Amino acid sequence: MDFSDLALSSKILAAVAEKGYIKPSPIQEQAIPAVLAGKDVMAAAQTGTGKTAGFTLPILELLSRGNKAKANHIRALILTPTRELAAQVGESVATYGKELPLTSAIVFGGVKINPQMMKLRQGVDILIATPGRLMDLYQQNAVKFSQVEILVLDEADRMLDMGFIRDIKKIISALPVQRQNLLFSATFSPDIRELAKGLVKNPIEISVNPENSTAKTVKQTVIPCDKKQKAKLLCHLIKENDWQQVLVFTRTKHGANRLTRDLEAKSINAAAIHGNKSQGARTKALANFKSGAVKVLVATDIAARGLDIDQLPQVVNFDLPNVPEDYVHRIGRTGRAGADGFAVSLVSADEHKLLEDIEYVIQEPIERKITEGFAPVNELPPSRPIKPFKAKKPKKVKHTHNEHKDGQRSSNSATGHKPKSKNTRHQVSGQDKASNKKTGKPVARKVHPDKAKQQGKKDPYSASR
Ligand code: ADP
Ligand code: MG
């Protein structure tokens, strides 16, 4: 199938071609016609498979056929769990819609609210928002929902993990009853199905990959090592392998800061990105990493979902995540759109239980390889046979919005063991509203072209896959 078979206007097709896409990805093939038909859609596909264009392209098409947004009104609302993701989705909307007479704006917390209010005054066709800031704007009457035709929840599973359920429900209850609902997620977890019950009507359900599967293009390795050696080992790996761009995940914000300092001390250019950093610092760190000015980006799980760093070759888990599903999302930052990727996990003996949980979720053992000179004194116990995967029952989602910050999932981080608390996955929350509102710059803007950097890219979804 070609994009031209998808009933999209020539202006959208031109923007897609300029981006260098040759064929729609499998999720796009199925989602685009369903959205264009006005149906509610629930779509699950592993990360990096092109979900953004799967909803953005048909939304642009549908909106370009209708009336403009009135003052303070919006016609399509796209909710994302993190600010970075909102910015990224907003960029896609701007890129794909650059030839269309539609406007879009991005709003999220941590930056000044006034410029966002100003932008909304004229009304925008597509608003991309994180839930917390959107609620603030709504409560201050800066945004009106009565003209909303389409609602998208992007990375819906992440949104639930981050404790946004209450805000999402409030927003949904303020929307017109008659509307199209699109729910995009990496997985159809039981919690997602629970949320969907109150949201979508007779949805078309699209699932392209098995739940929690990792991209086949990512080569995964575990390097057993002692905890105290990890920073040294990472420096060694970066230098030895001449890694030029590596995303490193740590469990805590403190750990991310400390590791960044250790790397800098060894003359390796590094920056940290996590929920305690100002939005300005987060944006700058990511931009510098993408441009290559910074070699190592050290992140907490805030960066694990949705972020799309073009051609990122290497991900390192400095610590294993407490929630095994996060492993899948972390390593999904590499090997995107069919490119090769490498994911290395530095695992100390105290983390063996976390490793077991991960191998259970992905249903395969991860190859172990000791690095010469870094053989652990405390050996990692050998891996045990993996039990067949059983889906969990839906949990009652607990409202812990803004009580916790990212990276604090573990109530027992000293041991690295998974806390037994029932609601672990829902205790992480809203860095969206939490931080400083002083630094920011306007983020709302008119749709405008972004550079078409992907010219000449090979078709990653061709028959060879
Ligand atoms: P997801 O939301 O599923 O994690 P994204 O929408 O972020 O994935 O897309 C992942 C990458 O694939 C992006 O760099 C995007 O530009 C690229 N991409 C999307 N659709 C196509 C396509 N049809 N052909 C080639 N590349 C694509
Ligand atoms: Mg996405």
UniProtKB/TrEMBL annotation:
<protein>
    <recommendedName>
        <fullName>ATP-dependent RNA helicase RhlE</fullName>
        <ecNumber>3.6.4.13</ecNumber>
    </recommendedName>
</protein>
<feature type="compositionally biased region" description="Basic residues">
    <location>
        <begin position="436"/>
        <end position="446"/>
    </location>
</feature>
<feature type="region of interest" description="Disordered">
    <location>
        <begin position="376"/>
        <end position="465"/>
    </location>
</feature>
<dbReference type="GO" id="GO:0005829">
    <property type="term" value="C:cytosol"/>
</dbReference>
<feature type="domain" description="Helicase ATP-binding">
    <location>
        <begin position="32"/>
        <end position="206"/>
    </location>
</feature>
<dbReference type="GO" id="GO:0003724">
    <property type="term" value="F:RNA helicase activity"/>
</dbReference>
<comment type="similarity">
    <text>Belongs to the DEAD box helicase family. RhlE subfamily.</text>
</comment>
<feature type="short sequence motif" description="Q motif">
    <location>
        <begin position="1"/>
        <end position="29"/>
    </location>
</feature>
<dbReference type="InterPro" id="IPR050079">
    <property type="entry name" value="DEAD_box_RNA_helicase"/>
</dbReference>
<dbReference type="Pfam" id="PF00270">
    <property type="entry name" value="DEAD"/>
</dbReference>
<keyword id="KW-0067">ATP-binding</keyword>
<keyword id="KW-0963">Cytoplasm</keyword>
<dbReference type="GO" id="GO:0009266">
    <property type="term" value="P:response to temperature stimulus"/>
</dbReference>
<dbReference type="InterPro" id="IPR000629">
    <property type="entry name" value="RNA-helicase_DEAD-box_CS"/>
</dbReference>
<keyword id="KW-0690">Ribosome biogenesis</keyword>
<dbReference type="InterPro" id="IPR044742">
    <property type="entry name" value="DEAD/DEAH_RhlB"/>
</dbReference>
<dbReference type="InterPro" id="IPR028622">
    <property type="entry name" value="DEAD_helicase_RhlE"/>
</dbReference>
<feature type="domain" description="Helicase C-terminal">
    <location>
        <begin position="217"/>
        <end position="381"/>
    </location>
</feature>
<feature type="compositionally biased region" description="Basic residues">
    <location>
        <begin position="387"/>
        <end position="402"/>
    </location>
</feature>
<dbReference type="GO" id="GO:0005524">
    <property type="term" value="F:ATP binding"/>
</dbReference>
<dbReference type="InterPro" id="IPR027417">
    <property type="entry name" value="P-loop_NTPase"/>
</dbReference>
<dbReference type="InterPro" id="IPR011545">
    <property type="entry name" value="DEAD/DEAH_box_helicase_dom"/>
</dbReference>
<feature type="compositionally biased region" description="Basic and acidic residues">
    <location>
        <begin position="447"/>
        <end position="465"/>
    </location>
</feature>
<keyword id="KW-0547">Nucleotide-binding</keyword>
<feature type="domain" description="DEAD-box RNA helicase Q">
    <location>
        <begin position="1"/>
        <end position="29"/>
    </location>
</feature>
<keyword id="KW-0347">Helicase</keyword>
<dbReference type="GO" id="GO:0016787">
    <property type="term" value="F:hydrolase activity"/>
</dbReference>
<dbReference type="InterPro" id="IPR014014">
    <property type="entry name" value="RNA_helicase_DEAD_Q_motif"/>
</dbReference>
<dbReference type="GO" id="GO:0003676">
    <property type="term" value="F:nucleic acid binding"/>
</dbReference>
<comment type="function">
    <text>DEAD-box RNA helicase involved in ribosome assembly. Has RNA-dependent ATPase activity and unwinds double-stranded RNA.</text>
</comment>
<dbReference type="Pfam" id="PF00271">
    <property type="entry name" value="Helicase_C"/>
</dbReference>
<keyword id="KW-0378">Hydrolase</keyword>
<dbReference type="InterPro" id="IPR014001">
    <property type="entry name" value="Helicase_ATP-bd"/>
</dbReference>
<dbReference type="InterPro" id="IPR001650">
    <property type="entry name" value="Helicase_C-like"/>
</dbReference>
<dbReference type="GO" id="GO:0042255">
    <property type="term" value="P:ribosome assembly"/>
</dbReference>
